[in-house]
Amino acid sequence: xxxxxxxxxxxxxxxxxxxxxxxxxxxxxxxxxxxxxxxxxxxxxxxxxxxxxxxxxxxxxxxxxxxxxxxxxxxxxxxxxxxxxxxxxxxxxxxxxxxxxxxxxxxxxxxxxxxxxxxxxxxxxxxxxxxxxxxxxxxxxxxxxxxxxxxxxxxxxxxxxxxxxxxxxxxxxxxxxxxxxxxxxxxxxxxxxxxxxxxxxxxxxxxxxxxxxxxxxxxxxxxxxxxxxxxxxxxxxxxxxxxxxxxxxxxxxxxxxxxxxxxxxxxxxxxxxxxxxxxxxxxxxxxxxxxxxxxxxxxxxxxxxxxxxxxxxxxxxxxxxxxxxxxxxxxxxxxxxxxxxxxxxxxxxxxxxx
Length: 354
Ligand code: AMP
Ligand code: MG
What we know:
alpha+beta; nine-stranded mixed sheet; three-stranded antiparallel sheet; 18 strands; binds magnesium ion
């Protein structure tokens, strides 16, 4: 018997902690395979939310692996190699994160993700031989893009490679949301795309947004949180095995795959939240820190505590972390500890990392 659980609502429910007096514009909808909530205050709030919705739906039409005729689906099916400029920038950025994370983040993991059934929701444990064959095609550093001269770009990969932007596309969408909040002069706003949160400006009472970190052991209890991050002009992106998984013969298999093994990452972490500052000026379509947080949360989940903290120290990238471990710890890097509210009732042990 298989049990299939997808908790796409968990991260959004948490935002109820955010307190929402005198809200100007809000929309909740399903897009990019997740529950999305957009809220805007000040400036052209209605317009910010409306443009945000359109932008997310448009990005889904371009970047989805499963929507026929998206850039990604058409490329994967061998129908065309050319993609829009935005897709090309994102692919190039994804390849760069494959290099910086030493292969822990890799969008060419696509065939392996599909073999576990996460693309089609028909879950199964693949044969070892199948995994080994598929892993031979996984190497995101081989991916390049070249301008064609007509505004579109050609994607160049090794023979047989296919791509899955599921680990980075929502972060990219949150970069675009920041552009929209900037253009529409929003004084405050929230964009929550599943585990990807952008806290723009402040709440109408001038206080910071409060974004809770879900207890990964209780994915279906939106009230179970390990801590709360007070955020202003920041991205907070969480990756966790609890966000999408299935069970077979008493074993749990989740959707974040370790490219070194082809199996769901088993690194001792149950969730990784990456926090970084948000740009205040428009990036005009280029990937920014929202994209970075998304790529890194997936990669650091694969790496595990020790390597993730080493990466935090040594990568030269500017971000902070909340790591939740299988053995009951909540590790918070020192850039966040000023305002972080640890939930003493959560049963976890709180540790500051510097
Ligand atoms: P996230 O929730 O951002 O951590 O992304 C997880 C999604 O990214 C999965 O559902 C897959 O579509 C894809 N994915 C899984 N493993 C990896 C990986 N090691 N690198 C890049 N993308 C991945
Ligand atoms: Mg990610």
